[in-house]
Specification:
Number of helices: 10
EC number: 2.7.13.3
CATH topology of the largest domain: Heat Shock Protein 90
GO molecular function: phosphorelay sensor kinase activity
Strand content: 15-25%
Distance between the termini: 54 Å
Number of strands: 12
Organism: Streptomyces paludis
Main location: membrane
Largest sheet: 5 strands, antiparallel
Protein name: histidine kinase
């Protein structure tokens, strides 16, 4: 579905790389911009402050000798006006304080930006003091310059005259310059973010290209192409990963090739042994048949031994036949010889030929029922194995049922279903996944039965040749049920496949 795929994509490595790269770029841009802004702002304000401070202090020192102490209100007003005149273009406002007298360069000016701490510092110490004060959205530089006398003797400190001059000057121009810096930083953020995203995309592409190649190579190996290798570029960690993948793929290729050779040798060995055993077994079977006929005339111990030899020879012959059949499946030499048959009649013949007609219950349609294109011999083997398994390990009644199953979309009948069920103890849940495995027996008791452990495996392979399925399950009321499902339509045999050799 598209939504889960989109959700998975949002949590993918590409998105995470882009987000991480962008966050780092944003953090770097904002940090650099903040530091640059702070330094530039401090530089602008410091330069402005130093310039005004020097200019005002020099101007006050120049005016002071012209006024004789003690001052009265009139001379103090004149001093404040003269002190402000030098900075008229900059909007200077001056406050002169002498004892209890107070004079401003602007009539009625309350000089509200002068803080008590600054006034106290300028009055108590004969040093120039200053302070930046923010009033609303307006920034003001306030400074205090105490007027002092030169020392009487060398080395003595200057003496306070009692006159302190305060200056208030707007920093509107400096604030405008700072605002321009802020705007410049803001305008630079978006291009920086865009550049960061582009760089992140390029970096993610460079990082993910080897990852995509590794994913494709892993998928190719999962499909069985063990000769898949990656091209190694560079000498970084991704290159090391590609090299490790190639080494692992080479080792796996060698291991799989060796396993295939061993498997082929094992199959060939089983086929050769089975083939070689058939001739002496045929002779042994002929001899045991003769001995069985003469067993009645032998003493009891000898007759028992003869019958035991005959039974075990029959088991061995069936095991060899099963091994030969399995070898054909493994070699891909098993071939269907399809014929159009009445499936119900084929089931009846299978039961009748083995004497099971009175033992096994049937639920079969009348003649003329479902017809399938199938190999009669192989279907006979499948049904015989399933019924024999039910009779041997289940409990009566054993039932064979045949019915036609419709298409899954509700269309006309398309498949024939054969069910073989019993009322025995059923199949243990831990055994169900293994019932079709070769030589698998669920308990030690079954190892002593005459079964080879290949019957159900052979049945499964025969059903697969017909394009069908074979499943095992337990009935709700007790007992096991095996279900064979084969198509009613024609079955395509593999073109050019070798004709099955009849070794019977």
């Amino acid at each position: 579905m598209r939504v889960p795929r989109l959700i998975r994509g949002l949590g993918g490595l590409r998105v995470r790389l882009i987000v991480a790269f962008t966050l780092v770029a944003v953090a770097g841009t904002l940090t650099t911009g903040a530091l640059t802004f702070r330094e530039a702002r401090n530089g602008v304000l410091q330069q402005s402050q130093d310039s005004v401070l020097k200019q005002f202090r020099d101007h006050v020192n120049t005016l002071a000798p012209a006024f004789t102490l003690p001052l009265n209100q009139t001379t103090l007003d004149g001093f404040a006006a003269d002190a402000a005149r030098a900075g008229r273009s900059q909007g200077w406002r001056v406050l002169a304080v002498y004892g209890d007298l107070r004079a401003t360069s602007v009539e009625g000016d309350d000089f509200a930006e002068l803080t008590p701490s600054l006034r106290e510092a300028a009055t108590d110490r004969p040093v120039t003091v200053f302070q930046r004060v923010t009033k609303g959205d307006r920034s003001v530089l306030v400074m205090g310059v105490p007027v002092t006398y030169a020392p009487v003797a060398e080395g003595e400190p200057r003496r306070a005259s009692g006159l302190v001059v305060f200056l208030s000057v707007s920093q509107r121009n400096e604030q405008a310059y700072v605002d321009a810096l802020v705007s410049a930083v803001q305008r630079a953020v978006l291009p920086a973010l865009g550049l960061a995203v582009v760089l992140a995309l390029l970096a993610a592409r460079g990082v993910l290209r080897p990852v995509r190649e590794l994913r494709r190579a892993a998928g190719s190996m999962a499909e069985g192409r063990f000769d898949t290798r990656l091209t190694v570029h560079g000498s970084d960690e991704l290159a090391d990963l590609s090299q490790t993948f190639n080494e692992t793929a080479s080792a796996l290729d060698r291991s799989v090739a060796e396993l295939r050779r061993m498997e082929a040798r094992a199959r060939a060995f089983a086929a050769d042994v089975s083939h070689e055993l058939r001739t002496p077994l045929a002779a042994m079977a002929a001899v045991t048949d003769v001995l069985d006929e003469d067993a009645r005339g032998l003493d009891p111990d000898t007759a028992t031994a003869v019958r035991l030899i005959s039974q075990e020879t029959g088991k061995l012959a069936r095991l060899v036949d099963d091994l030969m059949e399995v070898s054909r499946f493994d070699a891909g030499a098993a071939e269907l010889r399809p014929d159009e048959i009445d499936l119900a009649e084929s089931l009846r013949r299978t039961l009748a030929s083995r004497g099971w007609t009175d033992t096994v219950e049937t639920e079969l349609p009348p003649p003329g029922g479902p017809r399938v294109l199938a190999d009669p011999r192989r279907l006979d083997v499948v049904v015989a194995n399933l019924v024999a398994n039910a009779l041997r390990h289940g409990a009566p009644p054993v039932r064979v049922r045949l019915y036609a199953a419709p298409e899954r979309t509700g269309g006309p009948p398309a498949r024939a279903v054969v069910e073989v069920s019993d009322r025995g103890p059923g199949i243990p849940e831990e055994v169900l996944p293994h019932v079709f495995e070769r030589f698998y027996k669920s308990d030690s008791a079954r190892t002593r039965t005459e079964g080879s452990g290949l019957g159900l495996a052979i049945a499964m392979e025969n059903v697969r040749l017909h394009g069908g399925t074979l499943t095992a399950a337990n009935r709700p009321g007790g007992g096991a049920v095996f279900t064979m499902d084969i198509p009613l339509g024609p079955v395509d045999s593999a073109p050019g496949a070798p004709v099955e050799e009849d070794l019977a």
